Amino acid sequence: MNSVGEGCTDLKREYDQCFNRWFAEKFLKEDRSGDPCTEMFKKYQHCVQKAIKEKDIPIDSVEFMGPNKEKPDS
Q: Which InterPro entries match (predicted)?
C-alpha cells in the first residue's frame, strides 16, 4: 500500500520492512531490547504529516498513536 504522500512511499516501505524484521526476529522471540526502527518511523511520520498539511486533509479530531503514546481507553 502506498503512503498518503507520494514522496513518503519509500520511507513507508523501509519502515515496514524494518518493523516486520524486528517483530519476527526479536519481539516474537521475547527480545524486548528496543525497537531499531524508531528513527525511521519518525522520518516517515514527519513526511506524512507534511503531506497531510499540503493536501489540506482535516485531521483535527483524529488521535494518533506512535512511540511513547498509550492506547486511548474505549
A: MDM35_apoptosis, Ubol_cytC_Rdtase_hinge_dom_sf
The dihedral over CA atoms of 54, 59, 60, 65, expressed in degrees to the nearest 10, equals -120
* pLDDT value, residue 12: 94
Q: What is the pLDDT of residues 47-61, one digit of tens each?
A: 998 998 888 877 776
Helices (H) and strands (E) in the chain, counts: 2, 0
Amino acid sitting at position 26: K
In terms of C-beta density within 10 A (0-12 exposed, 13-18 middle, 19 or more buried), how is residue 20 classed? exposed
Cell of 24: 519476527
Residue 37 is given by DSSP the state: T
